[in-house]
Amino acid sequence: MEIVWTNILFSIVAFGILYFLLSKYAFSKLFAVMEKRRELVMQQMDEAAKTREQAVAYVEEQKQALNSARQEAQQIIQQSQITSNQQVEQALAQAKVEAARVKEEAVRDIENEKNKAVEELRSEIGTASVRIASKLLKKEVSASSEQEQLVNQYLNEVGGRS
Amino acid sequence: MHEMPKIFVGGIPIDISAVLMLLISCTVVFVLVMLSVRKLSVENPSKLQNFMEWVVEFVEGVVSSAMDLKKGKPYISLGLTLILFIFVSNLLGLPFSVVTEAHGPVTVFGHVIEATRNLAHGDHVEILWYKSPTADINITAGLAIIVFILMNFLGIKLNGKHYFKHYIEPFPIFLPLNIIENLAKPVALAIRLFANIFAGEVLITVILKLGILSIPFLAVWQGFSIFVGALQAFIFTILTMVYIAQMTIHEEEAH
User: Fold this and answer.
1) Does B29 touch chain A (CB under 8 A)?
2) Is A131 within the bounds of a domain?
3) What is the pTM of this model?
4) What secondary structure letter does DSSP report for B43?
5) InterPro entries, per this entry (chain B) (predicted)?
6) Is residue A17 in some structural domain?
7) Tell me, what's the ipTM?
8) How do residues A122-135 score in pLDDT, each as one tens digit?
9) Which of B147, B225, B238 is nearest to B184 (CA)?
10) Interface test with B, best of A13, A15, A42 (most B CBs within 10 A)
11) How many domains, in total, are found in chain A?
12) Rounded to an integer, what distance in angstroms lies between the CA atom of residue A152 and that of residue A124?
């Protein structure tokens, strides 16, 4: 071990040059890149947080939309139920009215038929009674309208009484 | 005992091995760092860049343990250069060393190596050419002097009158003690680093004398020397940062 002053000087100079070169050409760039990465990570984390917030808001929105859709569906079902009930009632009322009408018509038809039958019967009885009378009386009864009118009048009196 | 290949050029002593080893050490560090920053990338760093960023973060941790990282930003480059240079220097001498035996005067670049001058007939000297640069006290002293000058300069520049006031605290009678304390710092730095690495290399030389038996011991000791080399580089760097912090940061509560 020996102290050599030039060695001390050389080591100082060598270290100084190394420090100068490294900090000028290497470390400054390296630090800049590391700083950039730090910023990048921060930015990405910010973005991730923002995206998560957006996702939460979106989910909330979707939930609300779903709820409103469900409500709407409920409303539609209710309304359709009401409508169908109304329609059933309407149909029932119409059927009742129709039935009443048909019945009335039938009654009227029966009445008509009956009247017609009575009328027919009456005319037949008229003719028959004239024939019977002619046979019974063996008398030529002319089929004049005068006599027939008389008979008819008589029959009318009989029918009206019956 | 190995001699250093010292020559006199115009009356100036030059230790060729020290110059050589400083050159190798600086070159290795420079090439390593330049390779790691060759293709810098923010998103896809190479393995070497990752390693260098780890070293930067490690040094940042060292600096922040001694002082506020905001104030310590300018010293990160210094700490990085220190730790890389010392670590590489410590490891250089581990795998091998180059020793030549001289039986007569040896000349380099036309100058006679001092140790080989005036050799008696039949005598010989062993000249150590390749070793750890930090196994030379002159080089560790150079590093320590850099730290000493830097910390006092920064203390005067950033701390002003508190720097000088510090020498007469707590009482003016402590002035010599404080001066010794200040001077002891670089001396301790230089001797600690030199002694650890030098002792490591001496022990390797001693173990090698065991012949073939030396292999297991050598393996263990080489491994331990790597650890010691890293540890000493770390200690030198953290002490530098602590000294700078002591000198530059004026603690209010202490006054």
Assistant:
1) yes
2) no
3) 0.74
4) S
5) ATP_syn_F0_a_bact/chloroplast (IPR045082), ATP_synth_F0_asu (IPR000568), ATP_synth_F0_asu_AS (IPR023011), F0_ATP_A_sf (IPR035908)
6) yes
7) 0.88
8) 888 888 888 887 77
9) B147
10) A15
11) 1
12) 11
